Amino acid sequence: MTLLAIESSCDETSVAIIRDGSVLSNRVASQIKMHAEYGGVVPELASREHLKNFLPIANAAFADAGITASSLDAVAATRGPGLPSALLIGYHAGQALAFVLEKPFLGIHHHEAHLYSPWIAGDPPRADFDSFRPSVSLIVSGGHTMLVHVEAELKHRLLGSTVDDAAGECFDKTAKLMGLPYPGGPELDRLAERGDANAYSFPTPLIHDKSDDFSFSGLKTAVRYFLRDHPRLLDRDQSLFDVCASIRAAIVKVLVSKTIRAALRLRVPCVTASGGVTCNLELRRELLRACESAGLTLRLASNALCTDNAAMIGILAERKLLARGILTSYDDDIVPGWSLG
Ligand code: KG4
Ligand code: ZN
After folding, report:
1. Ligand 1: distance of its center to the CA of 185 in Å?
2. What pLDDT does 286 receive?
3. Using a 6 Å cutoff on CB, does residue 11 contact ligand 1?
């Protein structure tokens, strides 16, 4: 089966071509630089940029894969959640292509697709469903922070999510308070590598709460007051590194502790993680350390597939098509593992 997948839920325009579990191409045009000027994603600009980028990216994806549209058996696109005006560009482009080719079209749940990126591995990348195990999956990015129980392939249950800010948002906003460039998460992570995580103590919200929910807005506020009360602190490079390391440690501690606790409670053999924040060096190290000591297998999405991409959309769409055996009709009615939020 050969399938074209599209992702345009936020600030990445991505087109991938998947054939029988292999990622033949996965092109991503990131808009980060454009939005940096405004300190965050501007929805109107994002959708205009998707419009501009879609055809060049789609053509490049076909060229990389060495196929033309006539070889496609299906088309899939992210249906949500995301910025409505951004989603519409990729979604309608996918619908139009499927309509013209008279092939099935699948609308895919963005978060559900993130669950599958840790199972795409190798070079060239392909889906590794032979190793698939029930897992607790952490999806952590600028827009979402959630824990999902993946009971089996295509069988998911949302355990908890953030009640306010996402973890990536907390990284970005605290980095902004320190004057770091947007998006601050990667920069804060880089500087934290040179700092002492025990230098300062920041709150670890909901860490002992019995729910699987997260909350990061209190941590952001604590950093705001801390910086207000220590106005000259960041003049010294080493203090900046130490504050970065301490903030990062607080966020990572909550993410790791709640993920491992859920995995042990549900007696799953495996933990997975994906979403932009999974690029965080400390999160990767700490998840590995915690999984090793708890006897859990860890599957982390590769850095390229942590952030938004169409390959994960295509891999999930292919699984859904194979499971449902629908190859002839227009199908926009695939029910996600949980409701669209
Ligand atoms: O998945 P993603 O590309 O987009 C969505 O938000 O859906 O994630 C982007 C987020 C941003 O908040 C960014 O700062 C964060 O992931 N991020 C990081 C790192 N790399 C990306 N946060 C902490 N450390 C990193 N190394
Ligand atoms: Zn995402």
Report:
1. 6
2. 98
3. no
pTM: 0.92
Residues with CB under 5 A from ligand 2 (ion): 141, 308
Q: With a 6 A CB cut-off, is 172 part of the ligand 1 pocket?
A: yes
Choose between 270 and 340: higher pLDDT.
Answer: 270
2-125+305-324 and 132-301: identical CATH topology? yes
Q: Which of 193, 255, 279 to mutate to test the pocket of ligand 1 (most atoms within 8 A of CB)?
A: 279
Query: Domains of the chain: which residue ranges?
Result: 2-125+305-324, 132-301
Instruction: Choose the weakest-confidence range: 175-179, 235-239, 318-322, 324-328.
Output: 324-328
- Is the distance from the beta carbon of residue 310 to the nearest atom of ligand 1 less than 6 Å? no
Q: Which of 134-138, 247-251, 329-333 has the lowest mean pLDDT?
A: 329-333
Pocket of ligand 1 contains residue 185 by CB under 6 Å: yes
pLDDT tens figures, 93-114? 999 999 999 999 999 999 999 9
CATH 3.30.2130.10 describes domain 2-125+305-324:
no
Residue 337 has pLDDT above 60, yes or no: no
Instruction: Quickly state the pLDDT bin for 326 (edges 50, 70, 90).
Output: low
Q: Is the CB of 82 under 6 A from ligand 1?
A: no
> Does ligand 1 come within 6 angstroms of the Cβ of 275?
yes
CATH architecture of the domain covering 132-301? 2-Layer Sandwich (3.30)
Ligand 1 proximity of 125 Cβ (cutoff 6 Å):
no
Reduce the secondary structure of the chain to three states and give it as a string: CEEEEEECCCCEEEEEEEECCEEEEEEEEECHHHHHCCCCCCHHHHHHHHHHHHHHHHHHHHHHHCCCHHHCCEEEEEEECCCHHHHHHHHHHHHHHHHHHCCCEEEEEHHHHHCCHHHEECCCCEECHHHCCCEEEEEECCCCEEEEEEEECCEEEEEEEECCCCHHHHHHHHHHHCCCCCCHHHHHHHHHCCCCCCCCCCCCCCCCCCCCCECCHHHHHHHHHHHHHCCCHHHCHHHHHHHHHHHHHHHHHHHHHHHHHHHHHHCCCEEEEECHHHHCHHHHHHHHHHHHHHCCEEEECCHHHHCCCHHHHHHHHHHHHHHHCCCCCCCCCCCCCCCCC
| Mutation probe of ligand 1 site: the residue of 10, 114, 171 with most atoms within 8 A of C-beta | 171
